[in-house]
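Example (one chain per record):
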Amino acid sequence: MKFRAARPSDVGDVDALILPIFEKGEAPALLPRGVRAAVERVRRELGKAKLYTAATHVGGERGLPAWLVIVEAGDPKEWSVERARNVAAAGVKSLWRSTAKKAAVVLHADGIGAERAARATVEGAIYAMWRPEAHRSAAADRKLPPLASVALVTSEKADLRDAIRRGEAVGDAVNVARRMANEPANKMTPTLVAEEAKAIAKEHGVEIDVLDRERCRTLGMHSYLSVAQGSHEPPRFIVMRYRGRGGRGYDIAFVGKGITFDSGGISIKPADGMHHMKADMTGAASVIAAIGAVARLGTKANVLAVAPCTENLPGGGATKPGDVFTSMSGRTVEVINTDAEGRLVLVDGVTYAQREGARRVVDVATLTGAIQIALGNHFTGLFGRPEGFVAEVRDAATSAGDRVWPMPLTDEYREEIRSDIADIANSAGREGGAIKGAAFIDAVVEDGTEWAHLDIASTYWSDKDRPQSPKGPQGPAVRTLIELAARAARE
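Predicted structure:
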């Protein structure tokens, strides 16, 4: 799907026209008179509607496109990048099952500027072109329109080429993460995640190294390997390196939890909802997709991405509650609950990143159900230190369009994860569970390392349709990681 800037006079040359309409608002004055009249007519038919409701007029009268889509945009004073993104997505979603090949979206740039409006619109259109029914046999179940091009209609003279390029890279990366997380566990094993990463690395010029069990054992990653003991699928520790500025060192490192299926191990999960655990590798998918986009954009920063991947299954060789292992950092860990496995792989992932020289590390993980209890399904939990770096990550996330909320992490919680027989225990009761999970990872963060932990267990999946996506995997944190790399380049 190709994007381009267009003039208002071009709207007669598309199959579908999408535009925001505000409370008590009129059709944008930049549109031709006949189009404005049709918009007003559809507006009257729609009446008062919920935010992002799309009304479609199917006509094709002279001078009008075959589909005229108006999307409720609410109060114009509350217009934002997020609303621009959602309006575009809602409009494109309304064309599902249509035969539209060429669409146009009218940009509303008030308060955000044409460039940011354009980038958000491109992202939203791309998000709306993803569906989860990858394995249905009937082609008729595919709902997407055959959109080949989307024009961004504006009367301003701004150069939108860079905004379009960035919107395409970010939008495609989020959809890559969604696609990977949506795959069933038998079609997205650790080995297949590595193959996906290799394909992305090859396409965008990223170095990649995939460590097998023996190499990980040699490096002392016994915490990570303890999770893999019960599965017949071999673990794969994926390392991707992008050197956008050249030279030594890394400006930032991304570490993503890659549990390609989480049964809970010996501490097995309840059956209800366990099928969602195919997406327990969303963190790995996010960092793999993000570094691909960072490279695609030619970002002038050195970025490291680490994705420790394995299954977590019960079996004759599986880790047992009470077992003790030595992590790559040298700290010993007591496994109280084998279903608290994400932190076991992350401590070795974070340590590996530090050994590579990274002094800014962001990890992304579907770590705890407790964060969902704390925040619901609309915010990702943000932990870390020092406070200045946490604030920077929060600002980057907000700018990129991800919603995060800072959580406490103090010595009281660090004390609670102390083990009676080892250095740290991977479980210490349900109270404050998300904080204790973060405290476990924090135990291997070295002095001088700026670290942030994004617990996406609250946002990685939605059981409801949303303006930007159907129910299913959401692709959280990808935009944040790309924005952090861009900021590192500017620094």
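Caption: The CA atoms of residues 223 and 327 lie 5 Å apart.
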